[in-house]
Amino acid sequence: MTKSSPNAAVWFEIPVRDLARAKSFYGAVIARPLKDEQMGPNPTAVFAYRAGEGVSGHLYKGEPAKKGTGGTVHLAVDGLEDALARVGPAGGEVVSPIIAIPAGRFAYCLDPDGNSFGLFSA
Prior knowledge:
Number of domains: 1
Order of helices and strands: EHEEEEHEEEE
CATH topology: 2,3-Dihydroxybiphenyl 1,2-Dioxygenase, domain 1
Number of helices: 2
CATH superfamily: 2,3-Dihydroxybiphenyl 1,2-Dioxygenase, domain 1
CATH architecture: Roll
Low-confidence stretches: none
Largest sheet: 5 strands, mixed
Number of strands: 9
Distance between the termini: 35 Å
């Protein structure tokens, strides 16, 4: 019998036109560096995670969906307001007010390629 993950999601991928620019953008916004890693034939920038715990993902050179369409990944941050304040200067756009939900608070944003993402704080 195979062991399945307790999480519905196990990994995410965000397509970006310029890997170095996107790595810099996301690292600045979430205040955590991304790690360069070769995955198969593709260079990627991986979001920090603890091996065997939780969910993470990476950026890869690819063609993003049209601005504001496609899936939305929510990224955990410490200090939601501070993270949102870094989005514009880093080249992105905050597109919603802060929304409170039972698990915490989040806001929707767009990266420089138009990918939708959320910033979340428990």
